[in-house]
Amino acid sequence: MKTFISIEGLVYDYPARTPEDQPVRAIDGLDLHIREGSFTAVLGMNGSGKSTLAKCLNGLYVAGDGRVLVDGMDTADDANVWKIRSTVGMVFQNPDNQMVSSIVEDDVAFGPENLGVPSEKIRERIDAAMKAAGIFEQRHRKVHLLSGGQKQRTAIAGVLAMQPRCVVFDESTAMLDPQGRAGVMEIIEDLRRTGITTILITHNMEEAVRADRVIVMKEGRIILEGPPAVVFADRRQIEAAGLALPASLTVRDELIKRGIPVPDYILEMDALAEWLVRTAEAGEPDDED
Known about the structure:
The chain is an alpha/beta fold. The chain has 2 domains: 3-245, P-loop containing nucleotide triphosphate hydrolases (Rossmann fold, 3-Layer(aba) Sandwich); 246-284, no CATH class. It is 37% helix and 22% strand. The strands form 2 sheets. A 6-stranded mixed β-sheet has the order 6-7-8-3-9-10, with helices on both faces.
């Protein structure tokens, strides 16, 4: 897989609120390369810089120093701005902030219309996007009557209708109930299978274990990165970032302490439950599966 997003020495400061204040540094000399088609989770406490990073990925924020390249395009170049924003779609925490029309399918059509997509192609795009986001059956409903999860699906469909090559989910599950979160994660898994580069900004550890790669941020810097099994094995750095282990790994560790040899590759709660059932049915631990 080729590098799709390349970040080199990124610095971003929020301006001072008053003449007496100092600018607030949110990103402090960050280097990061994201491969095309990958699923990356970015973790960190509030104030770690993870959401600021998200907004730098499609040019909503422009680097004060360093640079961000999206498929070779510099986000600081005004000539690239529309191309970059149609290449990297953003789904934010509060879906209400992304709603622009009162009817679901009209809202989903807004993006393609503004991109100048021919009218005969828009119907095809929005139907495909609504089906992919699981909101097609609600296409004629008024947006204000939708549940939180349905609103987020509508926001995701609006992004997908623009046919981006990358989708950034910025705390997109934070305001949802468990069913809504599960629905968004299913969509992310579908995007992953179709080869769309996916970046999930989150503080939910159970979501992060499903990624190909986990980035842990603290004070605007990356302090830990790698596959989930490697990252979550570094308990010291996870604690230093103010984070807790995923519940699934806490349970796995307790089982290991009690003499049940749960394999290291098991990271998700569902996978752990399935392994325990297979082990119980076999009558003895099976650490080779």
